[in-house]
Amino acid sequence: MNRIDENTKPIGAGEPLEPELREALGNFKSSLTAWSEAMMSRPREAMAPARTNWGLVTKWALACVVFAGTVSGGLYQNHRQQEIAKAEAAAAAAQAAEQRRELAAQVANEKSAQSAEDLMAKVDSDISREVPSALQPLASLMTDDGNTGN
Amino acid sequence: MIKATAEDIAAQEFAGIVASHRTQIFRFLLASTRDVDLAETLTQDCFLKAHRNWSGFRGESSALTWLMRIAINLQKDYWRNRRLQFWRQTRSNSVDVDEAGEWLPSGERNAEQHILAKEQVTHVWQAVDKLSERQRTVFLLRYVEDLELKEIAETTGMGEGTVKAHLSRALARVRKEFGKDRDQG
After folding, report:
1. Which of B53, B74, B111, B121 is deepest in the core (most CB within 10 A)?
2. Domain that holds residue B153
């Protein structure tokens, strides 16, 4: 008995089929018929509700949790780093301003001290060089180091 | 009394229709969905709907064509609703193509022939799995339910030319699947 021929009517309408394809389609129909007959003749049970694919649901839920955690963690970290960077920048700016102020004050002090010293030196020099004419003979007797030559 | 008799006749007629075509409708829906529970539910829905509209059936087309049209519409409605609901996408009892290909009648085949037949069935399933909804419907109606092109056109509401085109593409896909196997072999 050839089951393929038994289960397939001539496949005539449409395009002609190669023998292999024809046989395959016959087997496909036989297989489907066997499956549906087996399912129809099985003992009838109360219709079970469709299974919930908990594996898939769990995977999706986990993926969502991980994604949300990653995103919120990243955002929090980014926000925190920005805050720290801002605080550090503000502290650095304040410190730099303080340093500039100190430097400016120091420069100003040094300048004023220098100018006072210069002025005193100039006065000394001027006074020591401008000797009244009456004392010129005595001044000429004096050496630069202040000795009288004796 | 006369009315009751007419109703009895109609009920008997309908019972005859159910008995004649239930197997075919279930087989078509099983092939389309690969889900036994869903195919059973849709088959029941199909006959329920047919029963409600039985008085409106004028016999212009065959009862099978009419029932197939109802079954196809129910199936379309199911997929349309399912596409819109993510939750339903996680709920499925469809078997995969390899499992579906396991079914073969216990005929007079030797082991080699049995393996070859199983391979062929699996290839056809793989091709059917890749077809569009329309191509699959046309393919199954033609090569499983043995409907003529005209009947398929009536059932699906397509023109005969469109049916031919879908059938041709479906067959090309099946041929490609077999060719792939030959290349691998």
Report:
1. B121
2. 111-185
